[in-house]
Write a structure and sequence with these properties.
- The mean pLDDT is 90.
- This protein has a 6-stranded mixed β-sheet with strand order 2-3-1-4-5-6, with helices on both faces. A 3-stranded mixed β-sheet has the order 7-8-9.
- The protein is α/β, with parallel strands linked by helices.
- The protein has helices at residues 17-25, 68-83, 101-109, 126-139, 156-166, 184-199, 233-240, 245-262, 282-287; strands at 3-11, 43-48, 52-58, 86-92, 113-119, 144-147, 209-217, 221-230, 265-274.
- The two termini are 36 Å apart.
- It has 2 domains: 3-166, 3-Layer(aba) Sandwich (Rossmann fold); 184-287, K homology (KH) domain (GMP Synthetase, Chain A, domain 3), CATH 3.30.300.20.
- Strand 4 (86-92), helix 3 (101-109) and strand 5 form a beta-alpha-beta unit.
- The longest helix has 18 residues, at 245-262.
């Protein structure tokens, strides 16, 4: 009998959700930086064995929205409660932050299987880890608690095996050779945005969106033209840098990452465009792929 199910990964920013999903898949699908709110979209990563298919779902970190973009990000996170067979609540072992009231309500009303995953145990000590585990065990007494380190691959495969064992009997939801639900252009956009998150400070990374206008693939090369969208002319100047030096470095590092991802030579052109206040413009957010859930 074949098993298949949706396993949704939620948690506060910097809990290590994306690192964990990449570790489950042994492949980098979600971008990773030290900055909060790195993940903006819900990304599916599909793990297959002959007998099972696990559809992992990485989501934006749980935050209190302050503008329209963050509202759409939380819509993506909240939607995961509606289709999950298993929910992984990721808690950083070095973070004592609690969850907001709305998330608590959704968790307590969730009728699937919930696992608490204490991540980054390599950054904690045994005493603090035991206290954290006891705290969550009291809050959610009927829940399994796992202690792992996604970056150190500690107990990640054991957790994945446990997840497979909990899946319901079901045919595969996706073809067995499919690893994600996102198109190629999405991963181009994310590779570029990752470099911006790594290289720029303060508000710049959060005011940026990326669109890929051209993606032409031949046997030997992929030719890509992408637009970096910012909100103000001053931000455009910072992204470009003196004589184009800053955007050149972004392009070089993004190209390297994309050549690894696609296993093919990449020709990448980058341009910068100003789109004022796009983060608060619902029409622009829809254009950039941030759909709004009607269910709250």
């Amino acid at each position: 009998m074949h098993k298949a199910g949706f396993v949704n990964i939620i948690g506060n920013p910097n809990a290590g959700k994306s690192t964990l999903m990449n570790a489950f898949l042994s492949q980098k699908l979600s971008i990773i930086t030290a900055k909060a709110q790195t993940t903006r979209h819900r990304i599916l990563g599909i793990f297959n064995t002959p007998e099972a298919q696990v559809v992992f779902s990485d989501t934006p970190g749980i935050i209190k929205p302050e503008y329209a973009l963050q509202e759409r990000m939380m819509d993506a996170t909240n939607s995961t409660f509606e289709d999950a067979d298993i929910m992984l609540l990721i808690i950083a072992a070095d973070d004592d932050g609690d969850l907001d009231e709305n998330t608590w309500k959704r968790i307590t009303n969730f009728d699937g299987r919930l696992l608490i995953v204490l991540n980054k145990v390599d950054l904690s000590n045994q005493k603090d880890l035991e206290q954290l585990a006891n705290f969550w065990q009291k809050k959610l007494p009927n829940t399994e608690i796992w202690s792992i380190s996604a970056t150190e691959s500690f107990r990640v495969l054991e957790l994945r095996d446990r997840i497979v064992s909990l899946l319901p009997n079901h045919p595969p939801f996706f073809p067995k050779d499919q690893i994600t639900d996102k198109p190629e252009r999405f991963f181009v956009n994310e590779a570029i945005r990752e470099q911006i998150l790594l290289r720029y400070q303060k508000e710049i990374p959060y005011a940026v969106e990326v669109m890929t206008e051209q993606f032409e693939e031949t046997d030997k090369i992929i030719r890509i033209r992408s637009i970096i969208v910012v909100e103000r002319n001053s931000q455009k100047g910072i992204i470009v840098g003196s004589k184009g030096s800053a955007i050149k470095h972004v392009g070089i590092e993004a190209r390297k990452a994309l050549e690894i991802f696609f296993d093919k030579k990449i020709h990448l052109e980058l341009f910068v465009k100003v789109n004022k206040n796009w983060r608060s413009n619902h029409t622009q957010l829809q254009r950039f792929g941030y759909s709004s859930s009607q269910k709250k």
